[in-house]
Amino acid sequence: MDEPHPPALALSISPAARALISQHTPFRFHEVKLGGAASQAPTDTDADSGRGASTVLEPFLPLSSPSPTSLPLILTPPRPSDPPALVRTLNDPRVAFSLVGPPYPYTEEIAREWVDFKRKAAEEAFAELAQRAEEELARREENATGVSEASAAPWIVDGLPVGNIRRADTGEWVGDFGLPRWNYEDTPDEVERDQLLKENDAKEAGEPSIIWTFGFFLNPDYHGKGIMQHVLRTVLSTYVFPFLRADEICGAAFTENRASIRTQEKCGFQAYYTFTRQISEARGGGIKEVTNLRLRRVEFERA
Fold first, then answer.
1. Would you say residue 90 lies in a domain?
2. 94: burial class by Cβ within 10 Å (0-12, 13-18, 19+)?
3. pLDDT at position 143, please?
4. Which residues belong to the signal peptide in this entry (predicted)?
5. Which of 77, 105, 112, 237 has most Cβ atoms within 10 angstroms of its Cβ?
């Protein structure tokens, strides 16, 4: 018997609220048909995408194509059909042994739990944006002018609620991109590190002094195509610096993972610190060197 899929994203946002969210954030919306024999690509209004399909509203972050021949990519919340692709990717040695986490071997159950967790986080983030949009629309109606006193300032969210790299044309899952706050692994003293973590975590989203970090992995079928460099550069140029207003972002990779380090360097990151860490027995054990890299807004804008 097949294991059940996680629930699909559940959002109900009026067209007017969607337009307002897209005015104040980099996010856009489309409808996708999921389930049955349906394609996961955005729907056509008159298309019948197959028996058992259901249409859901999905937010996404556009990723501009660097060239006409590049794959059309977007960042979305997870979809119920993603767990098998996650399991295949995170159990592939080309990916698994380049990561510190998540658990390895990676099971279907863990994948479903992760997809459900990220779905709930996305629903919460966009429900808050929808509420803000409806309140703004109500104020505009009360003013009878169509415009409230609110400025056009960005409506900041914490982190990145859309982290699944996906083909925009077919809906195929391509990889994962996360944007948490920095964990200060470059600070050896545990007391100092704990204090820095508390201070960074306590800051309100949108505060320029927050230090962010990121993690990523790709389906090995898409390795060597420049996809992650494109994703990282686009997220930096359209989201991290202009939207989250960040002044600095840090990255990391095993020093032996030259592909990951080169990807970051091509986006402007510079290595500044190395340390060693113990690797779990499941991932081969032993000790590996980690390289930390960082990029400041002024350097990125100057490049």
1. yes
2. exposed
3. 83
4. none
5. 77
Q: Which residue type, as a one-letter code, is found at position 141?
A: E
The answer to whether residue 181 scores a pLDDT higher than 90 is yes
Residue-wise pLDDT tens digits, 76-106:
999 999 999 999 999 999 999 999 989 999 9
Q: How confident is the model at residue 25 (pLDDT cuts 50, 70, 90)?
A: very high
Residue position matching structure tokens 């098998």: 84
Q: Which CATH number belongs to the domain containing residue 89 in this structure?
A: 3.40.630.30
- Looking at the domain assignment, is residue 5 inside a domain? no
- Mean pLDDT, range 244-254, rounded to an integer: 98
Q: Pick 262 or 152 by higher pLDDT.
A: 262
Domain tally, the chain: 1
- The pLDDT, as a whole number, for residue 41 is 65
DSSP code string of 197-248: HHHHHHSPTT-TTPEEE-EEEE-GGGTTSSHHHHHHHHHIIIIITTTS--SE
* Contact (CB, 8 A) for 146 and 20: no
- Is 4 part of a structural domain of the chain? no
16-25, 36-45, 209-218, 282-291 — which is least confidently predicted? 36-45
* pTM (two decimals): 0.91
